[in-house]
TrEMBL record:
Positions of region (Disordered): 1-77
Source organism of the structure: Nocardia brasiliensis (strain ATCC 700358 / HUJEG-1)
Residue spans crossing the bilayer: 82-105
Subcellular location: Membrane
Domain of life: Bacteria
PANTHER family xrefs: OUTER MEMBRANE PROTEIN RV1973
Alphabetic keyword roster: Membrane, Transmembrane, Transmembrane helix
Biased composition (Polar residues): 18-34
GO CC annotations, alphabetized: membrane
Protein name in UniProt: Mce-associated membrane protein
Primary localization: membrane
Keyword hit for Transmembrane: yes
């Protein structure tokens, strides 16, 4: 009996032909090979921090620009604010009505004011005022000696008393300066006219000349008080405005 050599089936490396034969047979029969199972990849949103991400984090974040919001216009509130406005208008109307009544009654003012109601009397006192102002403020250096007597004819009360005090000084100054003066009262408004007194608002212009050459000129509004003495209107006081 002949002895056979033992076949080592556990060491396929020594039998390359057997390994190739087994692979081909396995592919033919469709038996799967014992291949290692690959683990599925786990996808995650967190990526490892790389150099680019680190650089991006070091960069300063751009400043956020706030866009101005356009607010729609507020609509007027109804209700209480509306009625408050209505009440304020009513109160203002009542106050204005009260002032109108008071002004119509004119407390403390003489109701016998006939200015522009009696046209004849208004024109009479206006003409007397114009004549009195021209007599007092207009003069000719050649006829200055008769200034006092002429002024006394149109003055009364305080203005007459002032004339007696300052007439001599005024006449002396005019002679030394050798000046003449012209007076113009225009316009003349009668603000009050009673039986024996009147009040007028006048724009008075006084111009001085010397040897026919214009010197100084003074202009301004004045309030002239007139008083009726007998049947004549005389200037009693002047209030500069």
């Amino acid at each position: 009996m002949t002895s056979r050599k033992p076949v080592n089936r556990l060491t396929p490396k020594r039998q390359p032909g057997a390994e190739q034969q087994s692979r081909s047979s396995a592919s033919r029969t469709g038996t799967p090979r014992n291949t290692p199972v690959r683990k599925p990849r786990v996808t995650s949103t967190a990526r490892p921090v790389g150099k680019r991400q680190a650089r991006a984090e070091q960069r300063p974040a751009p400043a956020r620009t706030r866009t101005a919001r356009i607010r729609p216009p507020r609509t007027p509130r109804s209700g209480r604010s509306f009625w408050t406005l209505v009440a304020g208008c009513l109160i203002a109307a009542v106050l204005l009505g009260g002032f109108a009544v008071v002004a119509a009654l004119r407390p403390g003012v003489d109701d016998s004011n006939r200015a522009f109601v009696d046209n004849k009397a208004t024109e009479e006192v206006r003409a007397a005022a114009d004549h009195a102002l021209k007599t007092v403020y207009a003069y000719d250096v050649k006829n200055i000696d008769g200034y006092r007597d002429a002024a006394k004819q149109v003055l009364t009360g305080k203005m007459l008393a002032d004339l007696d005090k300052y007439a001599d000084t005024t006449i002396s100054a005019v002679k030394q300066a050798q000046t003449s003066a012209d007076a113009k009262a225009d316009p003349i408004g009668v603000t009050l006219l009673a039986d024996d007194r009147a009040e007028l608002l006048v724009n008075l212009v006084v111009s001085a000349t010397k040897n026919g050459v214009a010197q100084q000129s003074v202009a301004g509004p004045i309030v002239l008080h007139m008083q009726k003495v007998g049947d004549r209107w005389l200037a009693s006081d002047i209030v500069d405005q």
